């Protein structure tokens, strides 16, 4: 169940980060409310994930998965072009996430 909450937290965080561009410096109320709600939801989900997983593991997985998700979403939604070295870095982040997941330091 912790993994479900972690993934929901990643989704909420990623969507709110991508929507942050639409707030125009928090001058657009609807987009701003979406961003604030997304961040609040992310922290609620992460708090639930931490009931069954260590804090450091949840934070590392959340940060890494959010980085990858935000990058992919912004590439699709805003058509932002990223260099090959950036994608290589994203691959390294994904490898790190896999290594954390395979470690014996946490339970599923």
From TrEMBL:
Regions crossing the membrane: 31-50, 57-78, 84-102
Topology class, membrane: Multi-pass membrane protein
Highest taxon in the source lineage: Bacteria
Keywords for this protein: Cell membrane, Membrane, Transmembrane, Transmembrane helix, Transport
GO molecular function: amino-acid betaine transmembrane transporter activity; antiporter activity; choline transmembrane transporter activity
PANTHER family in the cross-refs: MULTIDRUG TRANSPORTER EMRE, SMR FAMILY PROTON-DEPENDENT DRUG EFFLUX TRANSPORTER SUGE
Protein name according to UniProt: Small multidrug resistance pump
The organism's taxonomic lineage, starting at the top: Bacteria, Pseudomonadati, Pseudomonadota, Gammaproteobacteria, Alteromonadales
């Amino acid at each position: 169940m912790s993994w479900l909450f972690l993934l929901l937290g990643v989704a909420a965080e990623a969507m709110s980060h991508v929507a942050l561009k639409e707030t125009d410096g928090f001058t657009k109320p609807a987009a701003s409310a979406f961003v604030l709600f997304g961040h609040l939801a992310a922290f609620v989900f992460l708090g639930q994930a931490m009931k069954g997983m260590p804090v450091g593991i949840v934070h590392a997985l959340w940060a890494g998965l959010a980085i990858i998700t935000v990058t992919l979403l912004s590439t699709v939604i805003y058509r932002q072009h990223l260099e090959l070295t950036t994608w290589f870095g994203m691959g390294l982040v994904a490898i790190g996430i896999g290594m954390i997941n395979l470690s014996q330091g946490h339970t599923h």
